[in-house]
Design a protein that fits this description.
By secondary structure, the protein is of the alpha/beta class. It contains nine helices and seven strands, in the order αααβαβαβαβαβαβαβ. A seven-stranded parallel sheet has the order 3-2-1-4-5-6-7, with helices on both faces. The termini are close together.
């Protein structure tokens, strides 16, 4: 991965050296202080390539710094949560093997650091705009419930429409002086010349605390975004 990053022109300080995502998140002013305490993290997944990219990004995450992790996907998207479970289960297995190897009888409770949930979609593909008014209100109410219940300190997203109500609610809380969450948006590597609709909304409304793009063309077009090179 790092060889590929070097070819894109991103520097080590931009990517964060041997711990890309943690230092990347710390590079801004969004996470308060430099405490080593873990940050409860909401990871928003989406069908198709969004989940694959997010899980690839999470694979370099310093897991003990971002825990517990709450994975959320659309109510009709079972595959994304299943993939997240597979990744987390593999992490648990790896820790167990290390504990056995080093004869650590106490072990590490990694299995308790991940939870999974689903959220209503604002609008299904092909759904009429008339009926989508009701589903949008329902999705917003559900997103509000999730945010109040979890109060995540970090929100990670990369483009699925599911992220919009959650991020907007977190942003409204900030406006009201309730700063529970810092929002980090990483635009999909598939977006080379223009942002996705979700990305454009979060960028224009200045919702995200930090907004990352993986192509220099996007950085030139959207200068408030931070170019970090290809993270895949």
């Amino acid at each position: 991965m790092y060889e590929r990053v070097r070819r894109t022109g991103a520097t080590t300080s931009q990517i964060g050296g041997s711990e890309p995502l943690p230092n990347l998140l710390q590079s801004g002013k969004s996470l308060h202080g430099k405490s080593q305490k873990p940050y409860s993290t909401l990871v928003i997944l989406g069908s198709g390539g969004h989940t694959a990219e997010m899980l690839n990004l999470l694979s370099v995450l310093q897991k003990d710094r971002f825990a517990p992790r709450f994975y959320v996907a659309a109510a009709t998207d079972n595959m994304s949560l299943q993939k997240a479970r597979v990744m987390e289960d593999s992490l648990v297995d790896a820790v167990k093997h290390l504990c056995l190897y080093f004869n650590d009888t106490a072990g590490v409770k990694v299995g308790e650091t991940a939870k999974y949930m689903q959220i209503y979609r604002s609008r299904e593909v092909g759904q009429s705009y008339v009926t989508s008014v009701w589903t949008t209100l329902l999705a917003t109410a559900h997103a509000l419930y999730i945010m109040i219940q979890l109060r995540p300190e970090v929100i990670l997203c990369n483009g699925p429409g599911t992220c919009i109500p959650l991020c907007i609610i977190a942003f409204v809380f900030k406006v009201l002086g309730i700063r529970w969450s810092s929002i980090f948006y990483v635009e999909s590597i598939a977006r080379v010349r223009r942002l996705s609709l979700s990305g454009l909304l979060l960028y224009k409304l200045r919702v995200a605390d930090q907004f990352f793009v993986q192509w220099p063309q996007l950085h030139r077009k959207y200068p408030r975004a931070e170019y970090v090179g290809c993270l895949m």
